[in-house]
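Support request, priority: normal
Reporter: lab tech (M.K.)
Component: structure prediction queue

Hi team, I submitted a job for Protein kinase domain-containing protein from Brassica campestris yesterday, and the status page still shows it as pending. I've pasted the exact input below so you can check whether something in the sequence is tripping the parser. The sequence length should be 715 residues. Please let me know if I need to resubmit or if it's stuck on your end.
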Amino acid sequence: MTSLVVGQSLGLTLVGDGVSFRNSRRHVAKSKFFFPNRKRLARAALVQARPREDGVTPSPPSSSRPSPAPVVQYKRADLADDLQAEARALGRAVDASVYSPELIARKHGSQPLKALRRSVEILTALGGFALKLGIDQRQGKLELNMKKRAGELRRIFTRLGPTFVKLGQGLSTRPDLCPPAYLEELAELQDALPTFPDAEAFACIERELDLSLESIFSSISPDPIAAASLGQVYKAHLRYSGQVVAVKVQRPGIEEAIGLDFYLIRGVGKLINKYVDFITTDVLALIDEFACRVYQELNYVQEAQNARRFKKLYADKADVLVPDIFWDYTSRKVLTMEWVEGTKLNEQVAIESQGLKVLDLVNTGIQCSLRQLLEYGFFHADPHPGNLLATPDGKLAFLDFGMMSETPEEARFAIIGHVVHLVNRDYEAMAQDYYALKFLSPDVDVTPIIPALRDFFDDALNYTVSELNFKTLVDGLGAVFYQYPFDVPAYYALILRSLTVLEGLALYADPDFKVLAASYPYFAKRLLTDQNPYLRDALIELLFKDGKFRWGRLENLLQQGSKDRDFSSKDALQPVLKLLLDPNGEELRLLVIKEAVRVSEAFALGSVVDTYNSMPEFMRSLVFNGNGNGGPLTMNPTELESTLELRDQVSRIWSLLQSSESFDPAILQPIAQVLQQPEARRLGGRVAGGVGQRLAARFLQQLLRATTPSPSPVP
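Reply from support: The job had stalled in the queue. We restarted it manually and it finished. Here are the results:
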């Protein structure tokens, strides 16, 4: 019996036989899964449905009763055909429900007995839990029993059904609402619920697609491969093409049940907003935001569009796989996608037995998560190991696109700026960032928050980036969020959880792995190459301090940025020059002129020192008028060492740029063109003048030292 990992909902590993169709679609024989003209494949042995290069799904034949023989070779569909198929799927979902507090209040408010029964069920479960919390508080054991109570709450949510499973998972990403112990426990919530009858699932497919089951599939598993809170997944073969697909079918009555639960939960939210003073967050707004996301998950055509958009944005990388959509077999309650054969990312032994490395896959996940958060802003909002599969050819497959989120454009740049302020230990600026990130309302005073940030980060930043554990950082920051009136946006909490999950997976393979160290090259590359004005300002803030240029910071950024496979030294050079010569860049030019004088002097004096050191001893005395032992320059040892270190540092930076694969002397041509501009010529003249003045002063000092007679000894 072949064990199949689908990961479509929670990546459950289930075992199931298959069926083949006979004369009637109602006649189902429970036999081994039917693979026409194919050998049975071992688990995680093959990605059977690879994405097409053009991202277009082949269209099925026009007849609803095609030949039963699987079509192995088929023509590539025209893009117009694919768009038409998507339009037909949208037509099948035209009556999909959209979350509306008013509509659910009108509907369920007219069914008081039904609402009362569900209320009693919920209050009995949660009331008993609240009573235990009250006893713990009276006995002073709230902290002592917190881990135990968090586990109890997780089990209660599981018993109460899909809405509360989703609610618990949502709370697990909200450090501003829950203490760390609850965050950790609720993150373990599994979507595993009892399956519903297969006959109902098959009837739903036929009803939604208006096609008989055997006209769509040549075979389908008789039992679900995986079951989740909102639906369950079957494995099937398309009749017209023979392709292996995953068919997700929505749980019957799920919309009704979720609507009733949110109607009741909103009632509780109103009471909390009105009477519970210590909760500063708008609970009702949180409930509505979360309910809106869950309702979006109920529309499988929306999920299909999410998957297609995610594929377009992120599957351009060779190591990322996103299954494609079969629009003609997708509707509001049925989703048909390419089947991905793979292994859940937390199954290290199984992954490594295939010659793959978990850390390589985790790094792929981290880079993709950073692109989701900081480049395009469209990201997977349901991160857990079951939605990430390792394919046999070493790709990382993303699954389940029902719950997605977006990072606002201004927040993407504010997050990178926040990292710069963190590196600089500028806690006042960090606190101000929380306004831009919408963590705090404008009327909140950040003054008392600054010491809390300083106390935590001063200790955390004693570690290097490669030593700092991301989960420790998130937990500590979460404690600050919990103590003060923060309202953490869902996008930020979800991406933190995603990176924490990836670090947790990596720690199984390498206890020394740090997600921050793996993320730093991406941040460095973005700072060095992105032409966005906000990021250019952030780079200046990072490189200049107290009127001095920090060459060590630039060297470190180049070292880290060059580790990113998309880094280009050409991209790093051009934006800086454009910024330097901007008409509004006078303040920056003054700083650069001052630094250019220092660097030019360092190279000139360094050349003198190198020449002096290469001379024989007798020539030193001859050239320097008998003062060969004093050295060629009137500089104290500390100043000389600092000057030579500056020269060596700049040389190393230039070598780093040259070592980039994209480096080509031809890239200097646009630089030369820029330097022909009048502003550049004026800048060059000021640099040369400054260097000339400093070298003249040093030469005069050297001359005076050489001509001043040494004092005669007293007889």
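The first strand starts at residue 3 and ends at 5. The radius of gyration is 32 Å. Let us know if anything else looks off. Ticket resolved.
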